[in-house]
Amino acid sequence: MNLAVDVVSDVICPWCYIGKRRLEKAIASLDGQHDVQVHWHPFQLNPTMPKEGISRKVYRTRKFGSWERSMELDAQVIAVGESEGIHFAFDKSETTPNTVDAHRLVWLADQNGCQDAVVEALFRAYFTEGKDISKRQRLIDVTAEAGLDRQAADTMLNSDDGMDIISNAREMSQRYGVTGVPFFIIDQKITLSGAQQAETFLEAFRQVMDSSA
Questions:
Q1: pLDDT, tens digit, for every residue of 3-13?
Q2: In the chain, what are the domain boundaries?
């Protein structure tokens, strides 16, 4: 049976990275008995973020009230990430970036059959390598290494192509009542909010398959 999973996500959301790992674990446990097609859709955690981004310390202090509170939350995410094989290195990130261009490249990657690899590369670049993914050349380098055609990426970022996917995804989020990410839509029938455990994804898969039997 074919299953479709639509993931609403932002590339600077650490729980989205964790959710990706847990979804992958659930899919792997199906042992190839079912074809699961995963598609990633944009969600801007910071829609008013300046084009060049802002200091992560400034942003997180504003958001959580103090830098100490931000570091406490980071430590919690780091611990969960380690359990999923993700080595978060928040200390390497100096900037909280604007993610519009990253989302456009994720969309382009979907058209070129390398979306999962590009999403993974963007998560890794930001969360474990501390790269500023608001810078276009860095974005092109990261996504090209993941299999996206460098010239196609450069051409798109120098045009307005892909800008409509942001507004289209916003409409989809409103339709499904998305208020935070990650958010998963299983075969357009079951929705899951948050970085659920692999077992929860498997149960959702079973429910969809049972309803289609």
A1: 999 999 999 99
A2: 2-212
Q: Give tens-digit pLDDT for 96-106.
A: 999 999 999 99
CA–centroid distance for 112 within its chain? 18
Joined tokens for residue 83: 């359990």
Cα distance between residue 200 and residue 211, in whole Å? 17
Question: Domain 2-212 sits in which CATH superfamily?
Answer: Glutaredoxin (3.40.30.10)
pTM of the model: 0.95
Q: Tokens 């307005």 identify what position?
A: 160
| Cα distance between residue 109 and residue 140, in whole Å | 12
